[in-house]
Amino acid sequence: MGQPRPRRLALVVAPQPGESFASWIDRMATDMALPPGRVADAIGVSNAARATDGRPLLFGVALSALERTAIHAATGVAPATLDAMQLAAYDGTVLDLHDLAAVGWARKARSRQWALFGHSRACPQCLAESGGVWPLWWRLGLAVVCPAHRRLLLDTCPTCEVPLRRGTTTNMRVLSRTLLVAPSMCGSRINGRVQHKGCEQRLDELVAEAADRWLIDVQAAYLRAAGGAAMTLAGQRLSGAAWFACLRAVVCMARAAATHLPLPPSVPLPDTARRAFLADITADWRRSSGVQSPASRPPTAALTASLLVFAAPVVLTDGRAGLVEAIRPIAEALLATRAHRKKQGNSNGLLRAVAVPTIIDQARLLATPRRNGVVAHLGPFARSPAARPALLEHRHIPQVVTTSDYHDLIAEFLPDTLPRTGRRYTALALARLCGATTQISGSR
Ligand SMILES: [Zn+2]
Ligand SMILES: [Zn+2]
Question: Which ligand has the nearest atom to the CA of 189?
Answer without folding.
Answer: 2
